Automatic annotation (TrEMBL):
Gene Ontology molecular function, alphabetical: ATP binding; pantothenate kinase activity
InterPro entries per record: ATPase_NBD, Type_II_PanK
Catalytically driven reaction(s): (R)-pantothenate + ATP = (R)-4'-phosphopantothenate + ADP + H(+)
Protein name, per record: pantothenate kinase
Length: 525
């Protein structure tokens, strides 16, 4: 693969915009000027909302690094040491108080990311109020919360540096239809006395804006979810997945027996086509972290798959729909090329196994009487996935982009679709297009009978939730933030934090998704 390099690849050219290094893997920050790319968290109200906290990971400048730098250069001039101390002290001063949360209000799910500090000093431990301790204990010691959701421990991001603090990222979600309970809790706990403004992304930031204002006396700082999605993707790939690459592709996708999942690093990421599959689908052409356009989209996405499966099979959840699809045979429902031509249509290079008409066999009463609900679920999944793949391929060809990155919670526990997308991109482009995926958009679970048996065990202790747009954790997801600093300009892309009460956590779930890694809340300052 030319553009998606394996972890051993080094030396890919870097992109620069406005004098700032623009790669997924930023270089070491300049020692003297505060340049470089880091991550930070800013409060959604009060004095701290206009200040930036810069941190970093894997060589990115952060406050701990500055402290180490101060020691390493103790032979420097007094003025230089003084400047370094002022920068460290300034960062501490403007650091928002714990707890730190990020928020994305999607059409189906509300996604939160919780930062668990792991470097709390004895002094901080003594000063910390009991409510914060209770929140941390409750969120990190449980994997399921009531009937509303799950915390995916295996997707937790560990030992990150944010705003100069070292800690772990946990991912939390609850159904959007319970947002009113969240807002009421905010009113009952008098959130407005703590923070008058909350930063949020997703469609719900607009939908619930008036409710936040009138019920809880809170203003929402609305942030564009596509901006957040791209920033989250960049951040997640830059920090990696606990020492492993975040990105992967399928080698030999056209050969089921030899199809192998392979990790890769996006050293030279641009341009890329970003396909965000949530309830619906948005397709972006991304030329740099600050330069992108929405090419097109489709209303036929994860919400369509689940809705049709509920109608056709009587299932209730995304997991149930995928479990049924894993056991079904779509060729009992779809009419193939070989059903029409008796084999391949060689003149136009169409294989006999290609779908000629989705649900084409359902015109026959005899066929309708012989199919199973599992067949219908599988055909629905294949239909939706093929449609997304076809649109993505046409967009990639029109935009002359060879790298296609698929994200979104539709791909969660959905290896059927990821492999089908990889096959479609590779086959129809004759190997020119590569489909890339993110670990935090799809759990490493094969959708087959054995793996779904484990899923059933999990369901006994926690509720299951339908798919929703990428956070991506995304990517999360994901809600992440990146702080970009230059000598002349400081741009904060941050996640907001809210006071998350323990009684609320009892009813709503956590999940280590950036599945969603990746919508990030962002704020420009």
């Amino acid at each position: 693969m030319e553009n998606a390099k394996t972890p051993e690849h080094n030396g890919a050219p870097s992109h620069y915009t406005n004098g700032l290094l623009n790669g997924f893997h930023p270089a070491q920050a300049e020692k003297s000027g505060g340049g470089g790319v880091g991550v930070g968290i800013a409060a959604g109200g009060g004095e701290d909302s206009d200040s930036n906290c810069s941190g970093g990971h894997n060589g990115i400048e952060n406050f701990h690094h500055l402290q180490h730098q101060d020691v390493a250069h103790n032979n420097g001039s007094p003025a230089k040491r003084c400047r370094l101390r002022r920068r460290v002290d300034s960062g501490r001063k403007h650091r928002p108080p714990f707890p730190w949360f990020g928020m994305d209000i999607g059409g189906t799910l509300v996604k939160l990311v919780y930062f668990e500090p792991k470097d709390i000093t004895a002094e901080e431990e003594q000063e910390e109020v009991e409510s914060l301790k209770s929140i941390r204990r409750y969120l990190t010691s449980n994997v399921a919360y009531g009937n509303a959701g799950i915390r995916d421990v295996h997707l937790e991001l560990k030992n990150l540096i944010m705003c100069g603090r070292k800690g772990n990222l946990h991912f939390i979600r609850f159904p959007t239809h319970d947002m009113h309970s969240f807002i009421q809790m905010g009113r009952d706990k008098n959130f407005s006395s703590l923070h008058t403004t909350l930063c949020a992304t997703g469609g719900g930031a607009y939908k619930f804006e008036e409710d936040f204002r009138t019920v809880a006396n809170l203003e929402l700082q609305k942030l564009d979810e596509l901006d957040c999605l791209i920033q989250g993707l960049l951040y997640v790939d830059s920090v990696g997945f606990n020492g492993h690459p975040e990105c992967y592709f399928f080698q030999n996708p056209s050969d089921p027996e030899n199809c192998v999942k392979m990790p890769c690093c996006l050293d030279n990421p641009f341009p890329m086509l970003l396909v965000n599959i949530g309830s619906g689908v948005s397709i972006l052409a991304v030329y740099s972290k600050d330069n992108y356009k929405r090419v097109t989209g489709t209303s036929l996405g994860g919400g369509t798959f689940l809705g049709l499966c509920c109608l056709l099979t009587g299932c209730e959840t995304f997991e149930e729909a995928l479990e049924m699809a894993a056991k079904g045979d779509s060729t009992n429902v779809d009419k193939l090329v070989k059903d029409i031509y008796g084999g391949d249509y060689e003149r136009f290079g169409l294989q006999g196994s290609a779908v000629a008409s989705s649900f084409g066999h359902m015109m026959s009463k005899e066929r309708r009487d012989s199919i199973s609900k599992e067949d219908l679920a599988r055909a629905t999944l294949v239909t939706i996935t093929n449609n997304i793949g076809s649109i993505a391929r046409m967009c990639a060809v029109n935009e002359k982009i060879e790298r296609v990155v698929f994200v979104g919670n539709f791909l969660r526990i959905n290896t059927v679709s990821t492999k089908l997308l990889a096959y479609a991109m590779d086959f129809w482009s004759k190997g020119q297009l590569k489909a890339l995926f993110l670990e935090h958009e799809e759990q490493e679970v094969d959708v087959d009978a054995a793996s779904m048996a484990q899923e059933k065990k999990r369901k006994k202790t926690a509720g299951v939730l339908p798919p929703d747009g990428g956070w991506g954790w995304m990517i999360v997801a994901g809600c992440f933030m990146v702080t970009v600093c230059t000598r002349a300009v400081t741009r904060c892309i941050s996640i907001f934090f809210v006071e998350f009460q323990t009684h609320f956590a009892r009813d709503y779930s956590g999940t280590a998704w950036i599945h969603s890694l990746v919508d990030c809340t962002t704020m420009l300052c």
